[in-house]
Amino acid sequence: MKKIIFIEPKAPGEHIFTQFALPRIGIFILATMMRDRGWTAEIIIEDIHGINYGDFKGADIIGISTITPTANNAYEIADRVKDMGIPVIMGGPHVTFLPEEALEHADYVVRGEGETSLMRFIDAWETDSDFSAVPNLSYNSTHSIVHNPQQSFEQDLDRFPSIDFSLIKDRKPLKVIPVQTSRGCPYDCSFCSVTGMFGKKYRYRSNEHILSELRSYKNAGKMIFFYDDHFAANKKRAKELLKSMIAEGFKFKWSTQVRADIVNDLELMALMKESGCHTLFIGFESFNPGSLKEMKKKQTVEDIVRAVEIIHSFGINIHGMFVHGFDQDNRESVRHTVKLAKKMKLTSAQFLLLTPFPGSEFFDSVSERIVFRDWSLYDAHHVLYKPLQFSLYALQKAQTYSHEKFYSFPQMVKKIFRRRWLALGISVYARIINRKWKKTNRKFLKTLSNLSWENS
After folding, report:
1. How far apart are CA 74 and CA 307, in angstroms?
2. Closest Cα to residue 398, out of 444, 348, 332?
3. What is the rounded CA–CA span in Å between residue 370 and residue 117?
4. What predicted TM-score, i.e. pTM, was given to this entire model?
5. Which runs of E-coded beta strand occur in 231-386?
6. Three-class SS of residue 349?
7. What residues of the chain score a pLDDT lower than 70?
8. What pLDDT is stored for residue 385 in this prediction?
9. 131, 212, 257, 340: which sits with the fewest CB atoms below 10 Å from its CB?
């Protein structure tokens, strides 16, 4: 029996979610599909298992999925695996946009969604055929690199199987179960590469297909995370799913990503609460109107404030995500954003740095201003390009300042008096992570300081 091992490499450094590893869902679908066609399939999540190259012996193919901050590590793993004589096929957002870079380390690259492409690739592999008919595939031929044509996005997501999480190495249980109900996003924010990977139109699984998967976790005592870029984009569909979840009597709690405009439908909010919604992850991005316009967010500060008030009225936690570093940002806008985030009593928050990810409109627009192209720094926690109103060092300090203020000791005391125990626990953890980050990044901070001094 042929064997394929899928690997999700680890990103360097620590952040607020370090202790809550949430694997990306793509390799789980691919591994399940390979199992269904008779191969032995195994998944290794480096954040959970580490990497032991002895585990790869006997594998016929190694598949590696990578995002930009894990790319350097992914390439190192690929190089080691190829030295063992095992072919490597890579996929994921980073190599989708930089396939020629990836082919310096891998034998094959799948650009974009991989389900159909991998099956066609395996068809050719098993019959010793050439790969010219495999859509989305890039590979080295005798004289040049070949990029096969990109296929259109799969519209029927029900074609793909429900995930078999037992394929994870040692069957180590996940703390949070990822479930995806849709793909794509029409908003096309300038700093986001989602549309390049999954398209600008929403595509959905049917509710029955989703429910058949969720029934596996009905009494498992797990937290479910709906891995959609905007879970409630189609409010009618979302309400139908939530009503079905309530009718099924699911007891698990769940979280997901949404936009602030979900509060325009109070029936939807009520159904979310009744069906077990625990936390909503919302990209507020900024309280600077100029920055919101610059990023094409299509929301206002007033929209954000109203959304938080309504969500809180339903007793649902909010994890707010903010981004510093737009050209419209300055020291005052950063202070204002942090001040308002504290005032809104968010359960938790992340203050990230604007990152020019390959594949995003923003990457192209600031290419000449990018200072660092070490992919391991592309984790939204390191300054990478020069904005208009900050020095490199000042922008980096703006991020650490934001976390220090939001998770300050006085803020923690307020949480104690308000009995907000979850928010308090996250605050303690976030303060520890912030201190660790500054300690492990002393050299990087020194480099930023020197560069800022030289350019002043």
Report:
1. 39
2. 332
3. 33
4. 0.90
5. 253-258, 277-285, 317-324, 348-353
6. strand
7. 14-21, 188-195, 453-456
8. 92
9. 212
